[in-house]
């Protein structure tokens, strides 16, 4: 009697938490990423010199210190997050990544979540720096207002996360690190022109320098539509383009 045995092999998908850990590690393990993230935190620390050195010119309250810390952090955080999105294409590791996980959009989601986690960590560090700055101001004999303003606190958190998301979104759409950085600063320069009176009304809908400024200041009332419009234009749209490009791009 002959017995025939059939063996069935079932491919097991990579669990998303493992994929997320891999993308988070790739986002923070390179020398360039570490330097940029460290420099972003140092800029948040340096920005606190403004309210500390010029107490008569800068409002001495919790919201003001949070604002300066957020502005310092946001100078380089988006650039660091661009590296996460462009790594496969700039470093030619796309073949390896998408062989291990052929569902490319799943990789993109993991990158977006990892970038979000980095932004949250950066925001927490900026928050701690702002609190330390308030402690220094008190030790100097000042009496900064320490009341909590929840709209401003929410604006601080949203500003850090959404500013970082712009870098991620542009990186996902452009794929090349140098081109993504140039695009980011070029778009910032172009939208800054919308502050001139002739086109100021249009700028209030697309210029993140203005719309995200309202958000950071906690001025949600009356500006929600403009803030949402900027987020859709500079985050949702490039991410959508990036998802399409990643799904269709040939790998050599």
> Structural class, from secondary structure content?
mainly alpha
Broad shape: globular
The major β-sheet equals:
none
Termini Cα gap: 51 Å
Arithmetic mean of pLDDT:
89
Could you describe the 3D structure shown?
There is one protein chain. The chain is an all-alpha fold. It has one domain. It has twelve helices and no strands. The chain is globular. The relative contact order is 0.13. The N terminus is likely disordered.
Give descriptors for this structure.
12 helices, 74% helix, 252 residues, 0% strand
List the helices and strands and how they pair.
Blueprint: H1 16-29, H2 31-47, H3 49-53, H4 62-73, H5 77-90, H6 94-100, H7 104-139, H8 150-174, H9 177-192, H10 200-206, H11 208-216, H12 224-248
Q: Could you give a quick summary of the protein structure above?
A:
The protein is 74% helix and 0% strand. The protein is mainly alpha-helical.
């Amino acid at each position: 009697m002959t017995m025939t045995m059939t063996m069935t092999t079932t491919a097991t998908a990579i669990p998303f938490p493992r994929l997320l850990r891999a993308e988070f590690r790739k986002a923070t393990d390179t020398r360039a990423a570490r330097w940029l993230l460290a420099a972003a935190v140092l800029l948040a620390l340096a920005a606190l010199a403004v309210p500390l050195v010029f107490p008569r010119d800068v409002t001495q309250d919790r919201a003001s210190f949070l604002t300066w810390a957020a502005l310092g952090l946001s100078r380089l955080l988006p650039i660091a997050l661009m590296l996460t999105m462009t790594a496969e294409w700039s470093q030619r590791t796309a073949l390896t990544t998408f062989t291990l996980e052929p569902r490319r959009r799943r990789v993109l989601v993991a990158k977006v979540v990892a970038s979000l986690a980095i932004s949250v960590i950066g925001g927490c560090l900026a928050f701690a720096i702002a609190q330390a700055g308030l402690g220094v101001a008190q030790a100097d004999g000042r009496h900064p207002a320490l009341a909590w303003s929840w709209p401003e606190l929410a604006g601080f958190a949203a500003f850090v996360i959404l500013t970082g998301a712009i870098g991620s979104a542009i990186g996902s759409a452009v794929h090349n690190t140098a081109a993504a950085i140039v695009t980011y600063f070029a778009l910032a320069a172009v939208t800054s022109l919308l502050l001139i009176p002739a086109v100021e009304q249009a700028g209030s809908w697309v210029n993140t320098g203005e719309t995200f400024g309202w958000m950071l200041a906690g001025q949600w009332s009356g500006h929600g539509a403009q803030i949402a419009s900027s987020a859709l234009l500079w985050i949702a749209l490039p991410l959508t383009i990036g998802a399409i490009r990643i799904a269709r791009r040939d790998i050599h």
